[in-house]
Write a structure and sequence with these properties.
Layout: H1 3-17, H2 23-26, H3 29-45, H4 59-67, H5 76-90, H6 93-96, E1 100-102, E2 108-110, H7 111-137, H8 139-148, H9 153-184, H10 194-218, H11 235-253, H12 255-263
Antiparallel strand pairs: 1-2
Helix pairs in contact: 1-7, 3-7, 3-11, 4-7, 5-7, 8-9
């Protein structure tokens, strides 16, 4: 199986998981979207060297995964890619930031290692939370929730098209890849050949997009994709929203971090 096929299968698996019947699947999409946005803001708001401070924030993605009975295997590819990107961003930190940071045990470590660890941890937390959001909500309910929260119609429509036609683009990439392998006799593709392949894929994509747009206009498309009717916010939705936003406020306020630092022997300084 090629990497493109594996990625498309992972994407389709999220749709299957979103059809689950746990109580977390039934929570209103708006509540989960708002909590996820607050979560990302809290994760990003800590200082560059924060590591211990971020540990309590793992409670939210763990709660979603265990509460909705999601398999951890859905994180393998996204987390790996996120870690590669985060490592590329922060790989030089240990060399650039040599200011010592003293641990509670008296050991001193260069501050760059803490900032690198913080970048990697933030990437894992945010990717895990985003995956759990999609796997417990589904792209349709997610788009509906965004629309109800006041996100512009064009942005929601673009999100739906991006998700839907990712499979079509992936299918085109697979077709071109197989054609190259059959015509190339199994020889590895040279770097100079990637430019024409990408250009041809772009032209095919633009042509397909034009034909799809014309077909949709003939069927009455006016820039809006129906995503469902109105939904009511219930007691469990309010409890989820207020409870987790309160927890995140406590973490960002430092109360839970102080308790955790005390348990770990003073944290870092």
């Amino acid at each position: 199986m090629s990497r493109v096929e594996a990625a498309l299968q992972d994407l389709a698996r999220l749709d299957d998981l979103a059809e689950g019947h746990s109580w977390l699947h039934r929570i209103d999409a708006r509540a989960k979207i708002v909590v996820t946005l607050v979560y990302v803001v809290v994760v990003a708001s800590w200082p560059p060297r924060a590591v211990v401070e971020l540990l309590p924030l793992a409670a939210y993605p763990l709660f979603l995964f265990f509460g909705a009975r999601l398999p951890a295997s859905i994180l393998r590819r996204p987390v790996f890619l996120a870690l590669l990107l985060a490592l590329a961003v922060g790989a030089a930190n240990p060399l650039l930031d040599r200011q010592p940071v003293r641990l509670g045990t008296g050991t001193a470590i260069a501050g760059g290692w803490f900032s690198l660890g913080s970048i990697l941890l933030r990437a894992v937390l945010c990717v895990a939370t985003a995956m759990a959001l999609v796997a417990t909500t589904g792209i349709g309910r997610l788009a509906h929730g965004l629309r109800q929260l006041g996100v512009p119609r064009i942005a929601v429509t673009q999100l739906l098209f991006l998700y839907r036609y990712a499979f079509l683009l992936g299918s085109n990439v697979q077709t071109m890849s197989r054609a190259r392998e059959l015509r190339g006799g199994g020889r590895p593709l040279q770097l100079a050949a990637y430019g024409p392949l990408v250009g041809h894929l772009l032209l095919r994509t633009l042509d397909r997009a034009e034909r799809i747009h014309q077909a949709m206009c003939c069927r009455g498309f006016q820039g809006d994709v129906p995503v469902g009717g109105e939904s009511r916010f219930g007691g469990s939705d309010w409890a989820f929203l207020v409870g987790w936003c309160g927890f995140l406020a406590l973490v960002r306020g430092g109360w839970l971090v102080g308790r955790l630092g005390g348990l770990l022997g003073g944290g870092v300084s």
